Amino acid sequence: MRLNTQLIRSRAKGPLQTVEYLDLSNSGIETIEKLNSCAKLHTLNLRGNALYEVVNLESCQQLWNIDLSNNELKSLDGLSKFVALGNLNLSNNDLTWHELGKIRHLHILNLSFHGNRQLEKDPYYRIHIVDCLPHVWMLDGRLITAGERLQVKNFFHESALTEHPIRHKLSKDWFIPTAMKRIDVTGIFGDKATHVMTKFPVNGMHNVETDRRRLKYIAYSLQEDLLIEKKYTHNDYQILRYHKSFMEDILSSRPQDRERCNMLLMLLVASLEFVMPTHLMKDTLETTKLSKVGNVFTMDIFLLSRDVRCYIVSILLGAVKVDKDDKEDGGLYDKLYLCLFYTISELTKLSHAVDKRECAIKSKLNTVYRDYKCLLASEVVQLLCIVPTFFDYITKDIGVMNLVITATGDKDVTEKINKISVAVKEEGGDVNKMYEELSALLLQKVQEQSKNISNQSPRLSSSDIILSPTKLSPVKSINPVDVADFHMRGVTSPEKDPPRVISARKPAERFPKLGDSLLLGPQTLGKIVSLPQPFVALVAMDSVPAANGAMQSKLKSSEDHYTYVNMDQLLWDHNMHFWKPKGAIGDRLTIHTVEDLQKELERKANMADRQLRPNSPDWQASHGTEPLIYSPRHPTPSSAPPRPKSNQGTPRPMSSLLKEKLDLKLDMSRRTESAAGYLEARQSSENIAKPSSPPTSISGETDGPGECYHCALEAARTNEEKETSLKELGEI
């Protein structure tokens, strides 16, 4: 089907000359055309069509967001004249590495490239994308920081020294057509592109501060896009009614409150991965003191659509990544950070997939995905154990049941919870006792499952590479022209040592001879002038050490310049060509004996033993009492018992750190009747025979959590007002 004016008018929400948002998704379009009249077009959605090339977009100079996912694209010629774009979604197409050269100059805030078979079949997919596109800020939902670009540069440098180097997909000096040489002048500049190029020049320095500024600009761009989408669609984003810069506010308040922002990120990811009831998330935010971050009411973020929440968690994960590069600790240990990093990538792929069910099944079959999902569930369950409403949903809501089973790894955990509840009721215990026992059971199960996950050996994917010095080839000369000049003259390069053949034959034992040099002490040299016996030598010294540490060369008594030496106590040094005392180390000017350095080495050994080192040897298992060769890592034998080794335990859960910092506990005395409990009680009192409906959940775009959420708030508010009025009447 060809794109015609009639289809454009039917999809546009207003006159074509002023329309800013155009949704042409899933229309069977094969060619892009007839967009000349849409001069102010800002967002173009061509998702799910049959496009095989990108053309005829030059007339839309204000274009900022383009969604070309789930097509059959093989050519990107139509994007080569743009200078900057906000969001470019090219996922699930048929692109090749050659097409990346056409958008290499393009500044892209958020680029999605996953789902292209020709690209993803390379095990170093992300590394090559980062290397080929130097002006992309975020790739597949994950921020590209300055540290990551430096790692990619070092990766290719170190890989070039291995036996099987990894080559660049695109050459640094690729051919540039004449029309593209002045793209910064002749390119398509809209208002957004001009603003970006003004804030972030091409030749600007890229460091950690630049990453933070880029992240705030991505948040600003998201807010502007939501305002335009709200204007032309039926999506009513309630958070924009009172706070239009909510994402910038969260990023600004993050440096003073990293732990709470990271916990908010984890809960948002959990709401995307698991189907969580709306009222449970509301009570969780209030109990954990996360209901307000900065000037933003966080519950409104959970009520946004799934795609918007995926974008928000990508921005928050980018903030965590920048903090990691800047050595800032926000409570996220490494494995939990990798869990969020991998999970958000999978959620981004799922939001852009054609068949989301098939994509979700493939992800669940991945063992790494299962381990990370279990780790995420365990962290969330440990936090929910202080929320009283959580125990009401364990046996009622399917999403919460799935969360608990995933965290504990026990499929029969719900039956055990029911048995404990019945046992407490039979004993006459109250609700407080029952919740405490359930909390203890869940925490024990979660901790056992977490230890099982943490003790598993890490799985390395095919994209991981470990460079070791044993695999490295000799380093090439920095300046190959100089080396070539020496080769032309038939001379070996001076930067390389000539080849040497080391024989396994031991050198013959040397006997003292007249004229041999001796090193008798620090700065004390002499020569053999006589051999009265075969191993007794008369040595003449040029200088003699004085009492004050100086060296005297002309003494009044000439006898002080001569001494007899027992040659059995000396050893011939084949490298330095002189005799020196056995067990001594040094050169022609200095000499040290083992006895002189014993105290210093022991001091260094004690300092080294206090530090935890990986793969430390077990001194208790050694057979001999003394080492053959002295090393500062070997402790001196003593009668004292050996000091036990300190083992590094598993990292402490982030939820436990937050509960300890904010003093969060399971307190039933301060519990108020939740909105969900009030609605269920009201429904059961009105009609007992009718089955209770499942609670509203934060899932995808099909449900409407906003309406039920506000109804529940009104119900809870009315109930509180009734209780207050009754208390006032009782006091009167």
Automatic annotation (TrEMBL):
Membrane-crossing residue ranges in chain numbering: none
Domain of life assignment: Eukaryota
Comp. bias (Pro residues): 634-644
Bias-annotated ranges (Polar residues): 613-623
InterPro entries for the chain: Leu-rich_rpt, LRC72, LRR_dom_sf
Region (Disordered) location: 606-656, 675-707
Annotated protein name in UniProt: Uncharacterized protein
